[in-house]
């Protein structure tokens, strides 16, 4: 019998097919057994009627427990009242493995219990929807850049130096030398863009963040485009178009999943260009009116980001932060060298910073000065400085944290559910 996936079931009405999946739920009614089966692509009700199957098969259905794996054969019927609009009339059924008592039941469970059972929790319909949205977002990001001629160049995970400050480095022993897990592929992107013009990297990045917040992971995935000859305005435009495209894609391709997550579509539909663009000091004017405790000149806290974003119905671009609170490689603003030509994009609804980017210093002497000011090891940056010796050009790029974008688009209040196996301050199991 042909094995089919539930998502393709509409093509098999009135035909006998085989499904392979897991038992989600079962109810008994006299000589009938209703099996709710999921196979990763969808859910269908399979009806076992005593007189249509052998006594052994009927008996076998009674031993099936939640999450038992099974193979069922039967005829597909259109059934308006059933989940998904179809039903199977079972003629044969085989249990592959009868599951032990499944720890996750329809009753409420605490977060810590669910996180301990993350490997099983992934099977629940909510997690299933989140994983599908995440996969679509990543595909949309890559399609967007691929379609615009960006070349994917993979950057290393093991690196000799810091990109985003030395306080969040994960140190490793590299044959008696000290190395670090990468915080960002940016520095290598800069080398690649001087070769291919437009590049991006996409991979896991690591930050030993000692803060326990709903927006921070120790290991997160970042997609980072970098463009030669581009300035700050160019990448603000790129980032704006990029976010609009991703949101639109999820709204069209993953509507069912967003519905399952009870996401308010209207809030996502508002995500259209142009995004408001305000300077760091404009943002501080807003914060001071709202009575922030954060002193002007320092970085925003999570609450500050939420307050600023609450003034807008779509992502807001905040640009030109003081250089003292930003990374060493950022180009100073020629109108006010105390400001860096950088931008952060804050998601609406309090999801915080989803994109960080900047124009990079292209002058050799200025870069040397900054590396010294930041007490970074000059030897480790020789290759990076070389890029300023051989045909240096202004260039810019940004990084988007996948998990924060998934949290925002799905409307989930904590990043721990946006990746299958989150690495957090107090957890690296399972
Ligand atoms: O603002 P960040 O630190 O920028 C960079 O790493 C640049 N080198 C990127 C570039 O220009 N190529 O990080 C970029 C984004 C943030 O806006 C946020 O979305 C995400 O990465 N991010 C995190 N996501 C989850 N957990 C963390 N601990 C994160 N730290 C940053
Ligand atoms: Mg940032």
Summarize the structure.
By secondary structure, this protein is of the alpha+beta class.
Question: Would you give the CATH topology of the largest domain?
Answer: BirA Bifunctional Protein, domain 2
Number of strands: 18
What is the averaged pLDDT score? 97
User: Please, how many domains?
Assistant: 2
Report the end-to-end length measured between terminal Cα atoms. Answer: 38 Å
Strand ordering within the main sheet: 6-10-11-18-17-16-13-12
CATH architecture of the largest domain: 2-Layer Sandwich
- State the shape: elongated
Report the bound ligands by name, code or SMILES. 4-amino-1,4-dioxobutan-2-aminium adenosine-5'-monophosphate, magnesium ion
> What proportion strand?
25-35%
The CATH class of the largest domain is: Alpha Beta
Annotation field: number of helices: 13
Structural class: alpha+beta
Q: What do we call the CATH homologous superfamily of the largest domain? A: Bira Bifunctional Protein, Domain 2
């Amino acid at each position: 019998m042909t094995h089919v996936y539930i998502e393709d079931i509409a093509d098999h009405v009135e035909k006998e097919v085989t499904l392979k999946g897991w038992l989600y739920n079962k109810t008994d009614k006299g000589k009938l057994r209703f099996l709710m089966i999921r196979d990763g692509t969808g859910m269908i009700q399979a009806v076992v009627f005593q007189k249509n199957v052998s006594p052994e098969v009927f008996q076998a259905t009674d031993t099936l427990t939640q999450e038992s794996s099974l193979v069922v054969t039967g005829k597909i019927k259109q059934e308006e009242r059933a989940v998904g609009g179809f039903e199977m009339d079972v003629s044969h059924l085989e249990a592959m493995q009868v599951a032990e008592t499944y720890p996750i039941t329809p009753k409420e469970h605490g977060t810590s219990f669910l996180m301990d059972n993350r490997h099983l929790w992934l099977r629940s319909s909510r997690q299933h929807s989140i994983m599908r949205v995440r996969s679509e977002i990543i595909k949309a990001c890559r399609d967007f850049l691929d379609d615009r001629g960006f070349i994917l160049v993979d950057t290393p995970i093991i690196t000799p130096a810091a990109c985003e400050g030395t306080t969040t480095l994960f140190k490793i022993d590299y044959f008696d030398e000290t190395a670090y897990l990468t915080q960002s592929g940016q520095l290598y992107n800069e080398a690649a863009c001087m070769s291919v013009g437009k590049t991006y990297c996409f991979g896991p990045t690591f930050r030993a963040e000692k803060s326990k917040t709903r927006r921070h992971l120790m290991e997160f995935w970042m997609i980072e485009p970098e463009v030669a000859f581009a300035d700050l305005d160019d990448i603000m435009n790129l980032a704006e178009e990029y976010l609009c495209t991703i949101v639109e894609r999820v709204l069209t391709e993953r509507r069912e999943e967003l519905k399952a997550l009870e996401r308010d579509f209207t809030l996502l539909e508002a995500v259209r260009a142009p995004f408001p663009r305000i300077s760091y000091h404009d943002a501080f004017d807003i914060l001071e009116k709202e009575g922030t405790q954060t002193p002007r000149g320092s970085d925003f806290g999570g609450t500050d980001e939420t307050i600023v974003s609450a003034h807008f119905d779509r992502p807001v671009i905040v640009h030109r932060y003081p250089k003292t609170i930003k990374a060493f490689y950022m180009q100073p603003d020629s109108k006010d060298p105390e400001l860096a030509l950088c931008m952060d994009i804050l998601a609406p609804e309090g999801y915080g910073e989803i994109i960080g980017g900047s124009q990079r210093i292209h002058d050799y002497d200025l870069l040397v000065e900054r590396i010294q000011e930041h007490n970074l090891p000059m030897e480790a940056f020789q290759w990076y400085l070389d890029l300023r010796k051989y045909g240096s050009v202004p260039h810019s790029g940004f990084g988007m944290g996948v998990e924060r974008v998934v949290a925002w688009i799905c409307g989930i209040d904590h990043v721990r559910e946006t990746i299958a196996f989150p690495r957090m301050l107090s957890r690296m199991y399972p």
